[in-house]
Amino acid sequence: MGGYIANFTVYTMAMLGLICFALVVYKKFLGGNSGSKSQFLGVEECISLAPRKNLYVVRAGNERFLIASDVDKTSLISKLDENSKPQRSEKQPGAEDLPVILDFPQKPVIKEMLKKINQI
Hints:
Blueprint: H1 2-30, E1 41-50, E2 53-60, E3 63-69, E4 74-80, H2 109-119
Antiparallel strand pairs: 1-2, 2-3, 3-4
């Protein structure tokens, strides 16, 4: 009886190993071109409007399109002009661009509250 269990275990492990090897080979060689970059088609910009709702600017050759994507459907909104490329500033806004409060009132609020409480 012990020999049958040992044979079953060995053959089961061999089959699982063979299945895992086949899966790795399939993903590596036949899994599609998910790893390669296309020179013709690409997503230039993407913005999330809500969970699972996105706007995409897609480039196809020399043309650009604005596409909306939702859970149920994907729809073409418009074809973009070549002159409508986004203007990017070379300097990204940072903490130094935030407004500064110069005259912040320095009132001893807690001390005044303690004085009022002690007077009661």
